[in-house]
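Same chain as my last thread, 779 residues:
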Amino acid sequence: MKVVDAVPEFADAFDFEEFNAMQREALPVLVETDHNVVASAPTASGKTALAELAICKTLRENGTALFIAPMRALTNEKESEWERFEEMGYSVYVVTGERDLNPRRARHADVLVMTPEKVDSATRKHDSRRYDFVTDVDCCVIDEVHLLDSERRGGVLEVTVSRLRRLCAPRFVALSATMPNVEDVAAWLDAPPEATFAFGDDYRPVDLQTGVKTYSHGENSFADKYRRLYRALDLAEPHVREDGQALVFVASRQDAVSAAAKTRDELAERDVPVDSRGDYDFHQEATELSDDGLGQAVLDGVAFHHAGLSKADRDRIETWFREGKIAILFSTSTLAWGVNLPARCVIVRDTKYHDPLEGEVDISPLDLLQMLGRAGRPGYDDVGYGWVVCDRSDADRYRRLLQEGTEIESNLAADLDAHLNAEIAMGTVDDLDDVLSWLETTYYYVRAAAEPAAYDFEGLRGRVRDTLEALVDRGFVETGENLVVDPTSLGRLASNYYLRLSTAEAFRDLADRDRIDADAVLETVAAAAEFDSVSARQSEAEAVDAVLGSEASALDDGGRKVFAILRASTSDSVPADLRSDAWIIRRNALRLLAALREFLLEFAGPRAANLARRLEARIEHGVSRDAVSLTAIDGVGAGRASTLATGGHSRPADLVDAGAAELTGAGLSEGVAERIVEAAGDLPAITVSWGDLPDAVAAGENEMCEVRLRNEGGGARVGVRVTVNGVGMHEKTTYLSNVTTVPVGVFGADAEELDFRVEVSFPELPLQPFTDERTVRVV
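reply #2:
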């Protein structure tokens, strides 16, 4: 069946002219009915076209399609691939955590591309103007729905889909690699039998042979990597000698680089003819690579591919691999889920990897099957070969996986309390009956009904009731008459900021302390459940001690590592031994600090929130206490802030007072100096007028006065606190764009002097608090 005959108005949306057998079988249900559809099929069999057919039907009916991609890297790939839709006049918009959201573009997009986590976050805030677009979805395509089985991410996908069903009831089209229990997913999504497809291996374009090869495990993990590499090269070599290619999956970006470098030497030693140094044109093209190591490797027929490379470099590597100029390609898991880049031989060298937040973890069974599914090049190979290289102790487990596959289970139970709290916080469930109705919309419920013994189906409702009661006891939810449930401030904040509930409790406990300092904030973040699985290697212990010293701490070794990285980051001095995990730990800590700031504002007040905001900025920019306020100025980064602070300008108001001419004399160009002064003027600049506050008051007398605060810069949310002799007298939080007043009582007391202090703090800006003082004598 030709594309132009099946969907004539969308023929240009496809990069081929004729549908294959699998696509032809599913096409009528996708484009001629409104049924929810579930389709499982072997990797590389053309599932993407099914997603595109569903999108085409939605666009034809003037609807909006949402494509849920399993990885952030794939959202970018889809944006590039679906320029074809853009050329036809439709708008494709990617929404991820890495990008600044443009709500207007999202609202007017014809195709939205998001990860499960971003859809979860957006639907939690669906009643805000910023995220209301997510409730206007007519068709939701779930790519790689077997992600449900993921321990860490499966529950997120599950509740997100259930929530979308309650919010806007779109049509669902769920696509998956081969899975034994496709009927469970179909039951969950209400896909009828005629819209449920389980395409077997006979739909693979190339037959697949898989197997497990073992190696002798040693005491040194570094040496083990090379043992596995040599085993992988032994498997790849016969295919490469016959002009085939090998795709080798490794655990990390660095592993891909180092394995490629070692392989170049090994292939030369084995005299395997793979280099392309005689190809002058290719030699010239290789010089355009921005990664020098990659440029050298490709000339020897070897390359590496990972998300850290520039898009231009990744595109070139993919093109050259397809053209046969690269014989062996080392990659992280990105290629397994994303680009259709088949090879005659696929080898999984590493079945374990180091996750900075989880420690050493096994690769998921689904990831592994996805990788092996890349074996076999349609049109070139009759058979594809997939191998798993593992320790002998794991061999039987992987052999069973290759022979039997793996059923898709629900992982909702592990975080049932957090997900239920989110639904209550959003108002999608209002009472106990709603809670139980919500349960029935989950894959957890469907899977429990299918496997009642394994999931204790009879006790499921009781478990949910117990979870609800625990949320009430812990202060996340409150109940009213007729079993109505409402979120508390704690529950709402935990949901809005995507926190583990134990982390939310720890943040509230910090807010309850009499004294909150920088170390207390950093230590609370380091102890968060989100960092529970961080492990500290033996080689990192000295570096951690160098930062923290021998001070007592309730943190475990992983928590101390996080604490050390955060403390060192405030001065851009993270020790070399801690840098490999520092980036991901900082990124997660910044998210937690932003959440903690709101907790402190709610439960402790703006002073504590401002402390958290300043620490957040110091960790992000690596600047001192004196320089942190300057990072609030547009155009002032870490280096410039530090230079200006060293020159005596530590507040934005200092730069305004200095003027562009003085800053130019300090080494800034005239244009930069003018822009910085202008931007600094957009930030708050507070002055205090003490008005009729007397110089002296008689003992036993009292007088009520009014202090006026003026903001001569940009408006901001502020906290105002007035103390006398260190004792709080008045506090308020307001948005200050011009003038506000605070009452001050002057009471003649036993003290000889009354020291009045006004402090203005900025909970949303990394500005040092502004203070002013006045003394009244008691006579």
